[in-house]
Design brief:
heterodimer, A: 522 residues, alpha+beta, MutS, DNA mismatch repair protein, domain I, Dna Ligase, domain 1, 5 domains, 5-stranded antiparallel beta sheet, 19 strands, 31% helix, 26% strand, B: 221 residues, alpha/beta, Rossmann fold, two-stranded antiparallel ribbon, 8 helices, disordered C terminus
């Protein structure tokens, strides 16, 4: 690394002002930053009405409208960035003037940054027009820097973006070099030389700072770097010196990492109003393709999904899908949506379909067992989900026995049959030593010698009038319990047989002295 | 010599029926009457029965106990109950040795159509080893055929409970039995109406009606 030239100390040294640079602390491990500059982003993210006519994007600056970006047709007419709007209109009569939209630009950058997360985990958005990627850690995965650059190039071309990018060992250097459309710098020793030749404009420092430096006779970054540090810090500003230091790799260049939003949404315009479910399914498939590609990139899954049908002159119809279990499986989502669309009819035709995912959750990876292939049972999950989707979650449940004397309370629905199944699976996955007896996981059971019927009625049915047609076969079994929760019972249960040969479970209620049917021996 | 040769050339219908797999019923008389020695797996079994409480579930208990038994070598699968008329009583099922954790109750919305849809989903999903369903007397032949194919694909034990009035209808089921009350108290009369690869017949199966103990023993055989 080249040492600073402290050749001429014009100003009295004030050590507090200039940040001290410890040459030994220079980063040892080479980082590789790719800076992607999108110089025409302001123009690209606004769709011009007519591509053939010249168009400009304008922004208000000190009360005047200036051109920020111009289409190629406008550039031919002599309009450049910075031209006043009045001048531009004089140069091209049929000029389309578009207002700059920082939020749209931001969205474009973030979309690119979200995609760039497939290349590296360190992505940073540099407003207004750049994205920074640190790729040294990804070189092994992609083979070479060239293959990463090729992927980046292909994606930018797919997005129809005018772009420049440059690789350098520091983020600031990469950004500045990219702005100057410079060649890649892959080694520390080339960095200072390459940066030194750059004009000051690449720094995008405020105009007055640039004017000051210009008046001092400084034209390039190299000129600035040659100045005594203390003097530069005092006359120009400490922050600019720091920025120079970052570019030259003399101090750490930290960047805020980009975090892609934890949800996804997209719209498909149907073109015309429709009630045709086939058209809907087609649109849904298209949306699901996008969604699942996104989920795959992000290694995520979702637990809910909203499908919104947009109507003309009416509030939209929203179909919500709550999944039993987070998924990233396209076919499973498609089946669910198909089932729902099959059964529900839209009140009015829809013009567009919007899909919004719930919050992304990190994908849970289940390790495969070498000896006992026991993957998580996706098919059982999918079955439960489809059934619950159609009949409601209360219509599908498991059973469990409860240790309780009152017959109607001795069983319970276990809606969490799924959770139970999963818990069991986990339990089994725990390593158990061979030869050790498995821990008995059975629920506590009351010792039951008495016969219980296989069918139980939801509620006991009064049968007093027909009592005589019954023949009591065995019994009684007295059940008297539950005084503590005010739902106590005092009953004598009998097994009985009726005229049709049905075997019944009946009881005599001691309070009302009346007979009830409570079950059938199926 | 000659007569032996002649006998060997006779084609016997019994051999033609390829019985894929069978699930022992747990009742010796019934096992003997059924080809393969049990309930046909990968096929529809129709149980024609009017009224409940004549031992129609008891007849299935040993097989259900065997199906739901935890086998560490196998994947756990459901036994789905679709539209049961009453509450299957968990304590009684446990007495019969059935592992209630593996049972899945499904109550479709009213109508035969949604029931059949649920049956088909349960069979096709490949996550059910058995499906017990209560359906109406009139079922579309095409739907039954599709179910039969799905059951064959998945090797699933599909049991359809239908009213006796369905007996006159055509059915692709591999086995159709008609259950009624036997003369003796603790038995059920089983009439085999149709049996692929077997013969129709009538038998009485005893020992599961009022006293569950013998059946639970049978299931452990």
């Amino acid at each position: 690394m080249p040492r600073l030239l402290h050749s001429l100390d014009l100003f009295a040294p004030t050590p507090s002002e200039a940040p001290r640079v410890d040459e030994q602390a220079a980063p040892r491990k080479l980082q590789l930053w790719i800076a992607v500059c999108l110089p025409s982003l302001a123009f690209e993210c606004l769709a011009a009405a007519d591509a053939a006519l010249p168009a400009v994007v304008v922004e208000a600056e000190r009360g005047q409208l200036h051109v920020v970006a111009a289409s190629s047709a406008a550039a031919e007419a002599g309009i450049a960035s910075g031209t006043k709007l009045g001048t531009a209109l004089a140069l091209a009569a049929s000029l389309q003037v578009l207002e700059r939209s920082p939020s749209l630009e931001r969205n474009c950058l973030e979309a690119l940054a979200a995609w760039a997360e497939t290349l590296t985990s360190m992505v940073s958005v540099e407003a207004p027009d750049s994205v920074l990627l640190e790729v040294a850690g990804s070189l092994k995965l992609f083979g070479s820097l060239d293959s990463i650059k090729a992927k980046l190039q292909a994606e930018l071309a797919r997005r129809h973006r005018d772009f420049r990018f440059c690789v350098a060992p520091t983020a600031t250097a990469a950004l500045w070099l990219a702005r100057a459309a410079n060649a890649d710098v892959l080694q520390w020793r080339q960095l200072a030389g390459s940066l030194a030749a750059l004009p000051l404009a690449v720094t995008r420092w405020p105009a007055e700072v640039q004017a000051l430096l210009h008046d001092l006779g400084l034209r390039t970054l190299g000129d600035c770097a040659r100045l005594p540090r203390d003097g530069f810090a005092r006359r120009v500003g400490r922050s600019y010196l720091l920025e120079l230091d970052r570019a030259f790799g003399r101090c750490v260049d930290l960047r805020a990492g980009f975090k892609a939003p934890q949800a996804w949404s997209s719209v498909v315009d149907l073109g015309e109003e429709s009630v045709d479910s086939e058209i809907f399914i087609e649109a849904v498939e298209q949306l699901l393709d996008e969604l699942c590609a996104e989920l795959g990139r992000r290694q995520a899954e979702i637990a809910s999904l909203d499908l919104t049908f947009e109507h003309l002159h009416r509030p939209p119809t929203v179909e919500r899908f709550d999944l039993r279990e987070p998924t990233h499986d396209r076919d499973r989502l498609l089946h669910l949506i198909e089932d729902r669309l099959e059964r529900s009819a839209l009140p009015v035709p829809a013009i567009a379909l919007r899909m919004e995912s719930g919050v992304f959750r990190p994908l849970e990876h289940t390790g495969a067992d070498l000896f006992e292939a026991k993957p998580h049972d996706e098919r059982a999950e999918a079955l439960l989900e489809r059934l619950q989707e159609r009949f409601g979650s209360a219509a599908v449940y498991g059973l469990c026995a409860v240790a309780e004397h009152r017959p109607e309370r001795a069983w319970a629905k276990s809606p969490e049959a799924r959770a139970q199944a999963r818990a069991e699976q986990r339990r089994e996955q725990l390593p158990t030593r061979a030869g050790m007896p498995a821990v008995e996981q059975r629920r506590e059971q009351l010792p039951k010698k008495e016969a219980r019927p296989l069918w139980l009625l939801q509620k006991p049915v009064a049968i007093e009038a027909r009592k005589d047609s019954l023949k009591l076969v065995s019994g009684p079994e007295r059940i008297e319990s539950g005084w503590w929760d005010e739902q106590d019972v005092a009953r004598d249960y009998y097994m009985a047989k009726n005229g049709q040969g049905q075997r019944l479970w009946v009881f005599l209620d001691h309070r009302t002295r009346s007979w009830f049917l409570h079950g059938l021996f199926g | 010599m000659e007569s032996n040769d002649w006998q060997a050339r006779i084609w016997r219908g019994n051999a033609a029926a390829v019985v894929r797999a069978a699930l022992p019923t747990g009742f010796r008389e019934l096992d003997r009457a059924l080809p393969g020695g049990g309930w046909p797996l990968g096929a529809i079994t129709e149980v024609l029965v009017d009224g409940y409480g004549i031992g129609e579930l008891g007849l299935l208990m040993p097989a259900l106990a065997a199906l739901t038994k935890d086998d560490p070598a196998k994947r756990k699968k459901w036994v789905a109950w679709i539209a049961p008329p009453f509450v299957p009583y968990a304590p009684a099922l446990q007495q019969h040795g059935v592992n209630v954790d593996r049972l899945l109750m499904i109550h479709p919305t009213a109508g035969n159509k949604s029931r059949l849809w649920a049956i088909e989903q349960a069979v096709r999903s490949g996550s059910s080893v058995g499906v017990l369903a209560w359906v109406a007397s009139v079922v579309d032949d095409v739907v039954l055929r599709r179910l039969q194919l799905a059951a064959e694909d998945q090797g699933c034990w599909v049991l359809l409970f239908r009213p006796v009035s369905a007996r006159l209808q055509r059915s692709p089921a591999a086995l159709r039995i008609h259950l009624s009350q036997a003369e003796s108290q603790a038995a059920t009369r089983v009439e085999i109406v149709k049996c692929r690869g077997g013969r129709p017949g009538i038998l009485e199966v005893a020992g599961f009606a009022l006293d569950p103990a013998p059946t639970s023993q049978a299931s452990r055989q």
